[in-house]
Amino acid sequence: MLLAPLRTNHPLFAKATATLDRLSRGRLVLGLAPGGREDDYNASGVEFDQRGKLFDALLERAVRQWQDDGGIGPHPATGGGPPLLFGGFTERALRRMTTYGRGWIGGAQGVANFRTILPRVRQAWRDAGKAGAPRLVATAHFSLGPDAQQRLHSRLANYYTSGTYTSESIEAGLSTPDEVAREVAAYAEAGCDELILFPHGGGQEQVDLLADAVGL
Q1: Neighbours of 68 (CB within 10 A)
Q2: Could you tell me which residues come within 8 angstroms of residue 58 by beta carbon, excluding any fewer than 6 positions away?
Q3: Closest alpha carbon to 4 in 69, 52, 75
Q4: How many C-beta atoms lie closer than 10 Å to residue 123's C-beta?
Q5: What are the strands of the beta sheet with 135-142, ordered from one edge?
Q6: DSSP per residue, 64-103
Q7: What's this model's pTM, rounded to 2 decimal places?
């Protein structure tokens, strides 16, 4: 998953992702979104207010290069380029998904938020005359073990700094095995094809704790 507008060297982005797609033998899936943190753009010397235009320009160039025999770098293993998933729920975000994408990826604000947005995603897909159904991916934050809730809260508050997104992310965070199991089941029931769980705090034991919580 990448903040696409920060990749301002469009030919190099297309070359690098095509290379990674070949190295992975076609297993690369790219999640792309403009992001909402102005400090990321300030630190990168990129105009925050221009991120939508930069995003569209990147997509146009990358797709053209993946399909063009005269482009720099290798051909991607996947015909036409790796599958793209798009975040966001504005009209422009959904247009990018239906124009270039294979599906949609939701933010980590909980399964209720995921369910609320899905009808718009599916309707946009149908309105664009796309075949089949969009791939639906969700994300969630978790931390398990001693002091899990405190670690989850402090890390999310430090990363997102402030605002509604911060409070919603903290509220939706999972800090007990029962919460993880319930959320995984709820996302599956909602129609989610893949749930990506981000660990916060601890170490590699978080993988084992997560596996135990979901019965793997």
Answers
A1: 11
A2: 4, 5, 7, 10, 13
A3: 52
A4: 11
A5: 2-3, 30-33, 84-86, 103-105, 135-142, 194-199
A6: HHHH-TTSSSPPPSSTTSS-EEE---SHHHHHHHHHH-SE
A7: 0.89
Q: Which long-range contacts link 78-82 to residues 24+ away (Cβ below 8 Å)?
A: 78/21, 78/26, 78/28, 81/14, 81/17, 81/18, 81/21, 82/17, 82/18, 82/20, 82/21, 82/26, 82/28, 82/29, 82/30
Rounded to 5°, angle at Cα 18 from 12 and 23 = 125
pLDDT 10s per residue in the chain (216 long)? 899 999 999 999 999 999 999 999 999 999 999 988 888 899 999 999 999 999 999 999 999 999 986 678 889 999 999 999 998 889 999 999 999 999 999 989 999 999 999 999 999 999 999 999 999 999 999 999 999 999 999 988 887 766 787 888 889 999 999 999 999 999 999 999 999 999 998 789 999 999 999 987
Give the count of alpha carbons within 13 A of 178, CB side only: 0
Single-letter amino acid code for the residue at 37: R
Q: What is the H or E stretch that residue 28 is in? A: none
